[in-house]
TrEMBL record:
It comes from Protea cynaroides. ATP binds at residue 82. This is mitogen-activated protein kinase kinase. Residues 53-314 form the Protein kinase domain. Gene3D superfamilies: Phosphorylase Kinase, domain 1, Transferase(Phosphotransferase) domain 1.
Length: 321
């Protein structure tokens, strides 16, 4: 059990490459305020100053900063506020600018909503987001245990809707995993954490850098020659979704047995040389097929978002709701 817990806490995120050779082929323009000397950006009508917010508690810590639950003093509305230290290193800075750029572009009920960005030169950067009172799917798994097929069909459908939106905007998330999917009491699921995402400039542009959490990376990200015919990055999000849903059903990271150490080399071997993980026979045929369609090692055989949205595991649930 301790091993399982340790595995769930895997921090196998690979840093963004530092070398200029590895920089995105289409570097994101910095958000205007981060280039200019202006002090504060407001995207919300409601909250126009950081001092209007009262910190209630810490919701969590990430690589880039701390997330607080905050209350708007005048309206009592509750938000989540991510605060990133202004002195952060170049990698973190690049991740946070990327996250801000994508949050500004996105507008979907399946993507975490940004209500404002506050920054001053050489001071902390704060991102005001909608508050998700259920935390992440990772914490939900730890507190409530594994999820039923029906719940997973519902979750998979919402994540697919979110990915459908992102992919239509030419955004590849590149770090789909339980810890990056936020949930609320209504069981609404929203995709968060765009620090390693990429905006594709051309539809078939390769997306080949080692960023994200390697445990959830698809085979073609390690070995594009074998598994990535026409590799364009979008299919990698589907692999990560398949692993995520499987983990939420099994209650542990699916690719390793409890005896294996979850280091980079072991994971890479399991992903590239092992059989793709599958469900036990007790799972329904539709569910088995859905996981199988997501976890095709050859990225050209893996189903796309729109195909998966019509898969019986998803559409059956949609009809009954
Ligand atoms: N909008 C939100 N609503 C509720 N809780 C949130 C929200 N955003 C983040 N959190 C909580 O704060 C934690 C830290 O989030 P954060 O995005 O900083 O870190 P992370 O997901 O580990 O990403 P990274 O390390 O890449 O920055 C999350 O794991 C989650 O528990």
């Amino acid at each position: 059990m301790a091993l399982v817990r340790q595995r769930r806490n895997l921090n196998l995120r690979l840093p963004l490459p530092e070398s200029p050779d590895c920089l995105p082929r289409c570097p994101l323009p910095l958000p205007p305020t981060l280039l200019s000397s202006s002090t504060t950006t407001i995207t919300s009508q409601e909250v126009d100053r950081l001092s209007d917010l009262e910190k209630l508690k810490v919701l969590g810590h990430g690589n880039s900063g701390t997330v607080y639950q905050v209350r708007h003093k005048r309206t009592s509305a509750i938000y989540a506020l991510k605060v990133v230290n202004g002195d952060c290193d170049t990698t973190v800075r690049r991740q946070i600018f990327r996250e801000i750029e994508i949050l500004r572009r996105t507008d979907s009920p399946f993507i975490i909503r940004c209500h404002g960005i506050f920054e001053k030169p050489s001071e902390n950067i704060s991102i005001l987001m909608e508050y998700m009172d259920g935390g992440t799917l990772d914490t939900l798994l730890k507190s409530h245990g594994t999820l039923s097929e029906l719940s997973l069909s519902n979750i998979a459908c919402q994540v697919l809707d979110g990915l459908n939106y992102l992919h239509s905007q030419k955004i590849v998330h590149r770090d789909i995993k339980p810890a990056n999917l936020l949930v609320n009491q209504k069981m609404e699921v929203k995709i968060a954490d765009f620090g390693v995402s990429k905006i594709m400039c051309r539809s078939l542009e390769p997306c080949d850098s080692y960023v994200g959490t390697c445990a959830y990376m698809s085979p073609e990200r390690f070995d594009p020659d074998t598994y990535g015919l026409n590799y364009n990055g979008y299919a990698a999000d589907i692999w990560s979704l398949g692993l995520t849903i499987l983990e939420l059903y099994l209650g542990h990271f699916p690719l390793l047995s409890p005896e294996q150490t979850p280091d980079w080399a072991t994971l890479m071997c399991a992903i590239c040389f092992g059989e793709p993980p599958s469900l036990p026979e007790s799972a329904s045929e539709e569910f088995q097929s859905f996981i199988n369609c997501c976890l095709q090692k050859d990225s050209s055989k893996r189903w796309t978002v729109s195909q998966l949205l019509s898969h019986p595991f998803i559409s059956k649930n949609l009809k009954s709701s």
